[in-house]
Amino acid sequence: MRFTEDHEWLHVENGVVVVGITGYAAEQLGDVVFVDLPETGTAVSKDEEIVVIESVKAASDILAPLDGEIIEVNTALADNPGLVNEDPMGAAWFFKMRIDNLAVVDEYMTEAAYQAHIGA
Amino acid sequence: MAEPAPLYLADLHTALGAKFVPFAGYAMPVHYRTGVMAEHLWCREQAGLFDVSHMGQVLLPADQAAGLERLVPVDVIDLPVGRQRYGVFTNDRGGVLDDLMIARRAGDLLLVVNAACTAGDIAHLARHLTGVAPVSHRALLALQGPLAERALARLLPDVAGMRFMDAAVMPWTGDELWIARSGYTGEDGFEISVHTTGARGLAQVLLDMDEVAPIGLGARDSLRLEAGLPLYGHDLGPDITPIEAGLGWAISRARRTGGARAGGYPGAGVLQAQAVRGAPRRRVGLRPQGRVPMRAGVPLFDAVAGGARIGHVTSGGFGPSVGGPISMGLIRADIPTDAPLYGEVRGKRLPAAQTPLPFQPQNCKR
C-alpha cells in the first residue's frame, strides 16, 4: 500500500489501483454523512477533484492521485457513508482506476514515510 | 493574522481531547474525542456542557433601560427583575447589527452578545448610553439538555424553580453565578456566567456527573440549526431585517405600531412598514431530498432547470437528530410556501422541500 500527501491510500489489486482515504484523514474529517463519487468510465487527470466527502463539519475534495479511468466506484458508500469512519482502510475504498503504468504507484510514500508525514 | 486567543478553560479542553478551530478570534473546541455526531445526540438525550466564554457580557446601570430601548425594538423598561428577553440591535435600514440577550437584575441589566460583534456592540452602546461596563474575567458556560436541571440542581437546588428565560444570581463557593434558563440548542438548560477563578471548578464538578459530557462548537451549530435558531452572520446580518428572519416576535408589543412606546429605535419605520405590508424576503426551513447537505451560500432556484434564482441557503448541514441534511435559507417572500425549491450544489440542482421551523421540537421549561 502507498500513500499520498493528501491522505489517500493506493493499493494495486488485480492490475487496477484501489483508492481510499487514510484513518488519519477520516478522523480529521469527522462523521462522514455523504460521499459524492465519480461516474464509472470517467477519464480523470492527476490532481483533478473527483470525490467530495461531506462530513458533519464541512465538504472536502479528494483529488485523483494519477491519470487514468475510473472503472468501479464503491456503491456501498451511498447507503452507508459512515463506513468511511468505521473502516477507512478497507471496506470504505472509494474507487478503482485503470492506469497505463502501474509502476508510478511506487513513487508515492511507503507506510513508514506516511506515518512520518503525519507526525505519528 | 493574530493567533487566536485561548479561552479561560483551554487547559481543560485540551485535557478532554478537544480539537480546536479559530472562531471570532478565539481558539474554540470544535469537538472532543467522540466527535460532533455523538456529542449532538448526547445533548438531546442527557446534558451537554459548552464553554461559550467567547461571547461578550456587558453590564448597564438600571437607569439605562430607556436608553437601551433606543437601540433595540424590545420592551426593556417593563422587563421584570429576574427575567430575560431576546433582542436585536437594529440599524437605520432595519437590519440587524447583532442579536443579544437582555436580563434585568436587581440593580442593573446584563447583556450577552455575539463574540464577533462584542467590540462593535460596546462602541455602539457607549455612543448612546452611560455607564456601559464590559464584563471581564468571567467565563460563560452553557449546560443544555433534558437532564441539565437534574445536574445543576445537585449544586444549586433553586435552579429547579426557574422557568425558561428566568435570570438569577446565586452564590457558589464564595463567588456568585449569574444564571439564565436559556440556551441555543432547543433543549432545556442554563447559561451560567462564573468568575474565571471558579470556572474550572464548576466545569469539572459538572463534568464529573454521569449525565454531563463536554460539547464543542460543531454540535452547538448542528443543535441550533435543528432548533431553527438563527446564527448571526449567516441567518441574521446588517442586510436582513428581523421580520425577514422570522423574528417579528422579538419586536415587543409595546414597541410596535399602537404600542405604549412604539418605534424610537433605528430602522423603526422600515420594520413598521414590513410588519404591515410584509418583508421582501422570508427565512425558510429546507429539507434537501437526497443526502447531499446544502450549506451556507448554496443558491436556491424555483425550477430544476432555468427558472429564477429566488434566494440562498444561509445555514445548512447535517442534522444528527433529524437523520438527514437540513438547511435554512432566505427566499423571495412571494414564493408559495409549498413550492418545491432547488439548491445548486457543485453544478447540480437538487430538490429541497420547504418545511416549518424548527426541524426538531423545542423542549424548553415554560
Core attributes:
heterodimer, A: 120 residues, alpha+beta, OB fold (Dihydrolipoamide Acetyltransferase, E2P), 6-stranded antiparallel β-sheet, 3-stranded antiparallel β-sheet, 4 helices, 36% strand, B: 366 residues, Gyrase A, domain 2, Elongation Factor Tu (Ef-tu), domain 3, 6-stranded mixed β-sheet, 6-stranded antiparallel barrel, 8 helices, 20 strands
Question: How is this fold's topology laid out?
Answer:
The complex is a heterodimer of chains A (120) and B (366).
Chain A: E1 2-3, E2 8-13, E3 16-21, H1 23-29, E4 32-36, E5 43-44, E6 49-55, E7 59-63, E8 68-73, H2 76-79, H3 83-86, E9 95-98, H4 111-117
Antiparallel strand pairs in A: 1-2, 2-3, 3-9, 4-6, 5-8, 6-7, 8-9
Chain B: E1 5-6, H1 10-15, E2 19-23, E3 26-31, H2 36-45, E4 47-51, E5 56-61, H3 65-69, E6 84-90, E7 96-104, E8 108-113, H4 118-128, E9 133-134, E10 138-144, H5 148-155, E11 167-172, E12 175-180, E13 189-195, H6 196-207, E14 212-214, H7 217-226, H8 268-277, E15 281-288, E16 299-301, E17 309-319, E18 324-332, E19 341-345, E20 348-355
Parallel strand pairs in B: 1-3, 4-14
Antiparallel strand pairs in B: 2-3, 4-10, 5-8, 5-9, 6-7, 7-8, 10-13, 11-12, 12-13, 15-18, 15-20, 16-17, 16-19, 17-18, 19-20
Give an overview of the whole structure.
The complex is a heterodimer of chains A (120) and B (366). By secondary structure, chain A is of the alpha+beta class. Chain A contains four helices and nine strands; from the N terminus they run βββαβββββααβα. Helix content of chain A is 18%, strand content 36%. In chain A, a hairpin with a 2-residue loop joins strand 2 and strand 3. Chain B has 366 residues and is an alpha+beta fold. Among the domains of chain B are: 5-54 and 136-226, 2-Layer Sandwich (Gyrase A, domain 2), CATH 3.30.1360.120; 280-359, Beta Barrel (Elongation Factor Tu (Ef-tu), domain 3), CATH 2.40.30.110. Chain B is built from eight helices and 20 strands. In chain B, the strands form four sheets. In chain B, strands 11-12-13-10-4-14 form a six-stranded mixed beta sheet, with helices on both faces. In chain B, strand 7 (96-104) and strand 8 form a beta hairpin. In chain B, helix 2 (36-45) crosses helix 7 (217-226). Classes of the chains: A alpha+beta (120), B alpha+beta (366). The interface between A and B is medium-sized, with 13 and 17 residues.
